[in-house]
Design brief:
The protein is α+β, with helices and mostly antiparallel strands and 298 residues long. It folds into 2 domains: 1-26; 31-297, no CATH class. 15% of the residues lie in helices and 50% in strands. It has 4 helices and 12 strands, in the order αβααββαβββββββββ.
Length: 298
């Protein structure tokens, strides 16, 4: 019933927009954006993905499958958020400056129980537990700045132009353990977080953090072409495609570790270089946010 009510609501909104457009068509033509007007856009791709998922009981009809893969396609998959802020400024009646900005930060903490070694040492029948945690912080964003030339007839305006594109992404993982390493307990009970680079002279190696994992910056240019259909004065639905060239520059990735050294009878820490960083160049017509949208001009 809930899905049916949502469907009815969507159909009602679409029907109302159509009726409103028909009423507006009785006039000579709608008021199109003019020099000095500012436009704000709302991305429709996530809405269409949600509607598609309502009917197939799946999560597969998302932004990617409808609009193409993101231009900033990366391992942590958040540097090009599905929902972004779109804005345009009409420099003249035909030329507009434009911006598309998206940013997102996610922090997730996984907590696991493991045996309390101190309590077990005092009482082997003890069922006491301590908590280990794995905290992952993902951050990313994208911004494109550019200009477009617009031309059209009545309710339809086509446009084309160029953009400068910049994006970034980063990931950090921090591991904390309830049982500490001591000279008495050199191999404590711990959840297996991460994959350590084993240190031969330690009793056992544990990962305590991973930094700059997948960190990268993107820079490039894009040529876009699209169309806006004005359903009413200063209100349009639009779509576009971008031909872009992007370079990705990855940073070095580090991992922090700890373990007990029987030779020095001390707990030691060290930092390992995991990856030297990679470079990638991409050329194509994938999406960069806001490819199917509603636009409001003021």
């Amino acid at each position: 019933m809930k899905k049916f009510r949502i469907l009815i609501l969507i159909l009602t909104v679409i029907s109302s927009a159509g009726i409103y457009a028909q009423e507006a068509s009785k006039s000579k033509k709608p008021v199109l954006p003019q020099a000095g007007d500012i436009g704000f856009g709302i991305d429709l791709a996530p809405v269409l993905g949600y509607v598609g998922n309502m009917f197939n009981n799946s999560q597969g009809n998302g932004y990617n499958t409808f609009g193409g893969q993101e231009a900033l396609n990366n391992e942590i998959n958040i540097s090009n958020p599905t929902v972004s802020i779109m804005a345009k400024y009409m420099l003249t009646d035909e030329i507009a400056l434009r911006a598309n900005i998206g940013i997102l930060t996610q922090k997730n903490t996984q907590r696991d129980y493991t045996r309390d070694d101190a309590a077990f040492l005092e009482n082997p029948l003890s069922e006491a537990k301590v908590i280990d945690s794995n905290t992952t912080t993902n951050s990313g964003g994208s911004i494109s700045l550019g200009a477009e030339y617009r031309r059209g007839y009545n309710r339809i305006q086509g446009y084309g132009g160029l953009d400068i594109i910049y994006g970034f992404e980063s990931q950090r993982q921090v591991y904390k353990y309830g049982n500490a390493i001591t000279d008495v307990n050199q191999v404590p009970s711990r959840t297996d977080y991460g994959t350590p680079t084993n240190v031969g002279y330690w009793t056992k190696t544990y990962v305590t953090g991973r930094y700059h994992d997948g960190n990268a910056q993107y820079i490039g240019i894009g040529a876009h072409a699209g169309v806006e259909i004005f359903l009413a004065s200063h209100f349009s639905i639009g779509g576009e495609v971008t031909l872009y060239a992007l370079g990705k520059f990855g940073r070095q990735c580090y991992q922090t570790q700890e373990g007990f050294n029987p030779t020095t009878n001390m707990v030691e820490t060290r930092t390992e270089l995991v990856s030297p960083g990679n470079k990638t160049f991409t050329f194509g017509t994938d999406n960069l946010g806001g490819k199917l949208y509603m636009m409001f001009y003021f």
